[in-house]
Amino acid sequence: MGSLQTNELTLSYGKEPIISDLNLSVPEGKITVFIGSNGSGKSTILRSLARLLKPERGSVLLDGHEILKLSTKEVAKKLAILPQSPESPEGLTVYQLVKQGRYPHQSWLKQWSKEDEEAVKHALRATSMTDFHDRPVDALSGGQRQRAWIAMTLAQGTDTILLDEPTTYLDLSHQIDVLDLLFSLNRVEKRTIVMVLHDLNLACRYADHMVAVHDRNIYSQGAPEDIVTKKMVEDVFGLSCDIHMDPIFGTPLCVPHGKGRQLLKEKKFTEKQRKATLVPE
Amino acid sequence: MTRFHASTPLKAAGLLAMFFIFIMAALCSITFGQIPTSFQMVYDALFHYDQNVTEHIIITTTRVSRTVIAAVIGASLAIAGALMQALTRNPLAAPDIFGINAGAIFFIVFSATFFSVDSLVHYMWIAFLGAGVAGVFVYFLGSMGKDGLSPIKIVLAGAAITAFFVSFTQGLLVIDEQSIQTVLFWLAGSVAGRDMEMLLPVLPFMIIAVLIALFLGRAINILLSGEDVAKSLGQRTVLMKLLIGIVVVFLAGGSVAVAGSIGFIGLIVPHMVRGLIGTDYRWVIPYSALTGASLLLLADVAARFVIMPHEMPIGAMTALLGTPFFIHIARKGVAAK
């Protein structure tokens, strides 16, 4: 349930098409990451997958049905999207925010139920936000705030979650924190995760399936170790680089060429690192 | 910032307290005025009416209608302001600030000048039309350009549309001085000297609008988190915004048709309410209604005594309250967005 495909999809803002004739199938139960340069249209694809943007031509298919012809509330039970840096109303608490995720499951006849309450509790637990549930969202740190929003999409109870650059404006530790959370949601709860990420190396580490967007269509797609090459980075990002293996995870690691301090010739790196990590006695 | 988040029973109790304050304000409005009366006299006038007692006549004719009108207008303007602030996600939104009132007045003056319209029912529909036209203009002017609706753009659009309609209204009055007498009534903004008959044609629309507003609370809460989030949660946002817009037009247009332009109630009341109970619109709407009604009633009572033996126009009274508040919100609110 919750298969997501595009069929000859053309997207545009104004006259210029940003994406044209895109055929894409999102693998179910996997983590899919869109990468590409600024303005390549990766966020645009994500928005159209979530029916937030109407296609110029072609269609998005959810479980084989054209998404814009489905009732928007029914779609909201199968698919959730977290926009980039969402803003919550002043003073809204974490609990109130997460409760909003149950909106598609409610109606005039069916008000707040035990099932809704369970879904909210579960979402708070899964994101380790239970202790914060009475705190105003706007008083949280960036990382906690993002976790609260993810909790809201979790409470929505969908099989598929789309996220537009969920790590923007977060420092490195919070980026890892959020990505680890999404990784375990995928591995433990088998939710399909589709997201846009800026950081190529983190994308390589967390993505099962990577889609490189370039020149209004897909440049290449597949497992990061199969598609991330010198040439791909050169073509898609216009950046010359070397691809190494991440020494801890074994995933591709892109090291960009360019200027900077060159320590390799001095051969002092290992020595200095050793000294820097030694605990002074 | 830490904020006091009231629990549901506490909010319900607060609403009851607000209702009590509203009843007290209404009683004050019936009791106090140029000709002093007492609560006892009000009771007698309402339940043991004696047409030989002057005070009884004053109470049942002018005071009661004035009180009912002030209560209805105060509640309507406050709800309209609360809805507009949610719709535009802008702390400065209110029917008077965004040109809705000015539009309604211009249409009334225009029709009085050129088409000699003088029926109350016609004025009502003309006011609805004017409010709607101004609202649509401000909304589209404020959302033009590639980044859509922004707080600054819509405030500027509101100021421009207000200035536009006010200038044209004044222009019309210069051309046709005779109509000043007929329309001065709306320009000043007042709840005095209005009969109940003025309210009756508008009242059904306002009641329906208020009821819809009360039912929209939960949907508005979702919309407050942004259009993308609301859509993602399965809300039909275009339909929702249209519905909110129509409700605002009926509340603000209806208010203008009855009492002219009364400023600042729509702006300040929702802020007072949110400061008290938070952003949950299921509570903000009923609280705004009662607070708006009470505030306008008390402002009207005060207006009777400030420059005795004359009465201060209530529009001036609410401006006195509202202007410092407006500056405060403008400095705090727009900077934060």
From TrEMBL, chain A:
One annotated GO biological process: iron ion transport
GO CC aspect terms: plasma membrane
Location of the ABC transporter domain: 4-240
Superkingdom field: Bacteria
Keyword check for Ion transport: yes
Recorded GO MF terms: ATP binding; ATP hydrolysis activity
Membrane-topology descriptor: Peripheral membrane protein
InterPro entries: AAA+_ATPase, ABC_transporter-like_ATP-bd, ABC_transporter-like_CS, P-loop_NTPase, Siderophore_ABC-ATPase
Entry keyword set: ATP-binding, Cell membrane, Ion transport, Iron, Iron transport, Membrane, Nucleotide-binding, Transport
Location(s), subcellular: Cell membrane
A Pfam family the protein falls into: ABC_tran
The protein's name: Iron complex transport system ATP-binding protein
Automatic annotation (TrEMBL), chain B:
Annotated Gene Ontology cellular component terms: plasma membrane
Superkingdom as given in the UniProt entry: Bacteria
Keyword Transport in annotation: yes
Pfam families: FecCD
Keyword Membrane listed: yes
GO-annotated molecular function: transmembrane transporter activity
Protein name: Iron complex transport system permease protein
